[in-house]
Amino acid sequence: MIARIQQALLGAQLLISALLAGWFMHRLTLPPAAAVPLALIIPFMVQSGLIAAECLIAWWIRDEPGPAPSSAGDWIQAWWKESLCAWRTFNFAQPLLGHLPVVRAGIASDPGAVPVLLVHGFFCNRALWRPMARALAARGHAVDAIDLEPAFGSIDAYTGKIDAAVAALRDRTGAARVALVCHSMGGLAARAWLRTGTGAQVCKVITLGTPHRGTVLAALGHGRNVRQMRWDSQWLQQLALDEVAQGPQHTPDYLVIRTWQDNIVAPQSTQTLPRATIRSFRGLGHVGLVYDLAVRDTVLLALQLPESAFRPQK
Fold first, then answer.
1. CB-count burial class (<10 Å; 0-12, 13-18, 19+) for 85
2. Which of 33, 97, 103, 122 is the most exposed place for a label (fewest CB within 10 A)?
3. Could you tell me the pTM of the whole model?
4. Using CA atoms, how far apart are residues 180 and 147, in angstroms rounded to an integer?
5. How far is residue 283's CA from residue 261's CA, in Å, rounded to a whole number?
6. How many helices (H) and strands (E) does the chain have?
7. Helical pair 234-246 and 185-194, crossing angle rounded to 10 deg
8. Are 260 and 209 in contact (CB under 8 A)?
């Protein structure tokens, strides 16, 4: 469903861009060869402008601690990279490749490598993970990815999909436990599923840009899941209380990866979990976390480490 919505949005975007390009060409008497570049540049500029507005809001409410706060250059770099990543994700990969598997069928996996389930975030689909999935498969991990639908439903409604996907991945590989790698809202969906008592099936959870405490920018969004992701929402508070009641012995180890220039999840420094290992990056936006090579290497290394090394040191 998300792919179809994004296909419709892409079609409308291209139509409006073509009309605007034609108007500019007529007003400025540009040659016909300028039509295609204009039709592509206009939507990119609009999308980049929206991301710039998100960055300004995220910068305004930032709360980065430490003696070396981020510079203006870090935010400019994050904005530019995020503009490219968002264009790639929402104008190509997700609307056009969402129906395809994230890795080719028949790729052999290493029995010693933990199977990995990839869980995307809000208004995304499995195509977001294609580069990450290829890197994981190259290291011998059996990989699968799911689509969280309905797009604007409750986060709790996604737990059944995660449960079925984990069961299918375990059956396919014969592994007792799998790892979850999650982006944004996907990390909250994983936590919601784990509070149902399924922690024994999971050895590690890695979250990228997940709003563990919520985000102020969710006030600008639409949908029940967006309301659940508002800053310190009642749903998030109850999720945290349920995890405390469940106890650490029933909770897998977490690696929380965040960026100080997250243009969607802000404030940034509070996006942590008790007992989690934290890795922070600079110069990256929200979607950019999925594509960045240094983040990818961090994920690959974490999956190779034993669980004792994965836990934060006291």
1. buried
2. 33
3. 0.92
4. 14
5. 6
6. 12, 6
7. 40
8. no
